[in-house]
Design a protein that fits this description.
single chain; mainly alpha; two-stranded antiparallel sheet; 2 strands; 59% helix; flat
Length: 659
């Protein structure tokens, strides 16, 4: 009988245990390592010569980058491979990343992004070349990169006019971002001679704002009217001490009236006696001219002339007084009153008794002589008040003043009573509240501002609370006071609270208001003051609020003008984008703007609220000008915004200045 061999059995047992140990290590290792190996393999195959393998790799990239949480090394690996790819292969990878919604800045680094743009320009059609400047304009951090400069310069010289125009706009944006602005200035100067009038006009407007030392000159008489208009304006603005081109255009009665009118406006930049004499002469010559077009020239001359407000014998003042016999609603008469300002006669505005007659026919009230006269007198008073320097003299407030006139009076009267502002701060109109808040923020003492903010935040009226929040935001005041007026201690809102305790009303209403839109304005005010609490579950942190603001601008439940005002106060770049950008940057229609500036700045007088927040070199907007000039000034403002949007402190003050 054979006996078992213990040594052989021991060896086999040892082998089995070893295999088991190896498997227990290898299987998990393989399980975890295999996906990493496959990812590496797929990334390497993106540039494979085998098209089947390349297609497999591209599909893998699309599928896995579309996952909720793709591996953090996948996108960097793909980008690294792009440097090895030829142009066709590179574009395939771009398409894959675009399909996976990963192709965009800042995720894609500079080199592949600029390579893609260069391909778009060199290999694409007109549509691609027209789109490329928009992408280049979105690279302010690369404004000094020679590759960006080279691409944009080529686009400004493209054979297609729409491409050149878009490239010019991009050059203006990058001009403000660059440390070395000369290349962009050269592009702008080069386009002043563009064959397309639209592009040449825009280049001249830019030239008038950047005021280069290029020595560029042009004869406005040899150019299309739209271009000549920009040349006359730019030449006078950049060289106000030599206003001869504008003077010649103004005096040339054979010239296009549009050019004479722009010359009258351009001369407002010149402080020379020659310029003022030319304006005075035209004002006197055209005082009784029945021609409407020539009256428009006189209208602008009235607004442009320089006069000594304290001297009624000043030649310019005497020229303006020549219009005193015109109808009270005549634009030239109103403009003359506006320019004379404080030296204009005091008007006695009385509300017609017929408006209080319950039996009066509403259909006939608008045509009643007393009502018409009352409206005209309010209009004249409005012109006068808006021509005065704030705080120089007391203005008598009468019960007959229309709200617009009364608010204008409060903006300039010497001894401003906060009580007179309260009705406007309780108004349902957001633009009226904004203007009243700006008047309070620029005209009242610190103590008056604090008392008024507390009073408004304790008001029952929701619109008053909004004004209280905005005033606190504009002034930086912490509105500390009782929660609500005495007598509401037992209300549900104050259940269990001691009405004698003083608290931060802004913070309180931000958390306790029962209406989301009112809480939002409180958050906005706290953001303006840089004091959104980090530990609150109710109030969003600053970063979240900033990313929310652009969405708030299109929310019908929120006062968008107030949000823009707050954003401008904080120098938030999206405020300028909202105010001055087109809905569609490629739309050729110049009216494709988000904001109706004439309605907002003129009709609603919101310009007076915005202006104190703009940088010192911001162009002006004349609320008493003709519509064509106002549109021209909006065009100038939009061009100025393009040139300054990427310049630090270029558009908004980043605080409250003085208008």
């Amino acid at each position: 009988m054979d006996r078992p061999k213990p040594k052989r059995l021991t060896w086999m047992l040892w082998l089995a245990v070893s295999l088991l140990l190896v498997l227990s290590a290898v299987v998990p290792l393989t399980y975890y390592a295999a996906p990493h190996f496959k990812r590496w393999l797929m990334v390497q195959q993106l540039t494979s010569d085998d098209l089947t393998k390349r297609e497999e790799a591209l599909s893998y990239v699309v599928a896995h980058l579309n996952e909720r949480n793709p591996h953090p090394n996948l996108l960097p690996g793909v980008i690294e491979q792009m440097a090895e790819a030829d142009d066709e292969n590179f574009y395939q990878i771009v398409q894959a990343l675009d399909t996976a919604k990963r192709w965009g800045r800042p995720a894609i680094p500079d080199d592949p992004w600029l390579r893609w743009l260069a391909m778009m320009i060199s290999e694409g059609g007109e549509a691609s070349r027209k789109l490329a400047p928009l992408h280049l304009a979105d690279l302010p951090e690369l404004a000094d990169d020679p590759r960006v400069v080279k691409m944009l310069k080529g686009l400004t010289q493209d054979k297609k006019a729409p491409v050149r125009y878009q490239a010019l706009l991009a050059a203006a944006e990058l001009y403000g971002a660059a440390d070395n602005r000369q290349p962009y200035e050269d592009m702008i100067v080069d386009r002043t001679d563009d064959a397309a009038p639209k592009t040449a006009r825009q280049a001249w407007l830019m030239l008038g704002l950047i005021n280069p030392h290029s020595g560029v000159a042009a004869n406005w008489r040899d150019r299309p009217t739209d271009v000549a208009e920009a040349i006359i304006w730019a030449a006078t603005r950049t060289n106000p001490d030599v206003p001869r081109p504008a003077i010649d255009a103004l005096a040339d009665k054979a010239a296009d009236v549009k050019l004479r009118a722009i010359a009258a406006y351009a001369l407002s930049y010149s402080k020379t006696s020659d310029a003022n004499d030319a304006l005075v002469k035209l004002i006197l010559d055209d005082a009784n001219d029945p021609n409407a077009a020539r009256q428009a020239v006189a209208w602008r001359a009235i607004l442009s002339v320089r006069l000594d407000q304290a001297n009624e014998n000043d030649p310019a003042a005497q020229a303006l007084l020549a219009y005193r016999d015109r109808p009270k609603n005549d634009p030239l008469y109103l403009s003359a009153v506006h320019r004379l300002g404080a030296v204009a006669p005091v008007l006695d505005i009385q509300r017609p008794a017929i408006l209080d007659d319950d039996d009066a026919d509403p259909d006939k009230l608008a045509e009643h002589p007393d009502v018409v006269r009352w409206q005209h007198l309010n209009l004249v008073a409005l012109a006068r008040f808006e021509g005065m320097t704030p705080g120089e003299r007391d203005v008598a407030l009468t019960g007959g003043m229309l709200p617009q006139t009364r608010l204008a009076a409060l903006a300039v009267t010497k001894n401003l009573n906060p009580d007179d502002l309260v009705p406007f701060m309780r108004a349902s109109s957001m633009s009226v509240r904004d203007r009243a808040c700006m008047i309070a923020a620029t005209r009242l003492t610190r103590q008056q501002q604090a008392d008024l903010a507390v009073r408004l935040l304790r008001d029952f009226d929701a619109d008053a609370k909004i004004s209280g929040a905005v005033l606190a935001g504009l002034t930086g005041i912490d509105p500390v006071g009782y929660r609500l007026p005495v007598g509401l201690e037992d209300s549900d809102v104050l259940q269990g609270l001691d009405p004698g305790d003083k608290i931060d009303l802004l913070q309180y209403w931000a958390e306790k208001s029962d209406a989301w839109d009112k809480r939002a304005v409180m958050w906005l005010a706290l953001w303006m003051q840089d004091r959104l609490p980090d530990d609150s579950k109710v109030i969003p942190d600053e970063a979240k609020l900033e990313s929310t603001l652009t969405g708030w601008l299109i929310n019908d439940d929120l006062p968008w003008t107030t949000i823009v005002l707050a954003m401008a106060y904080k120098a938030h770049p999206e405020a300028g984008q909202f105010l001055f950008a087109k809905r569609d940057p490629l739309n050729e229609d110049p009216s494709d703007l988000v904001v109706d500036h004439i309605d907002l700045f003129d009709k609603h007088r919101w310009w007076s609220a915005l202006q104190p927040l703009l940088a010192d070199d911001a162009p002006k907007f004349w609320v008493w000008a003709d519509t064509d000039l106002e549109n021209f000034q909006v065009e100038i403002l939009r061009t100025w915004w393009l040139l300054n949007k990427h310049r630090e402190g270029g558009v908004f003050r980043g605080g409250l200045g003085t208008s």
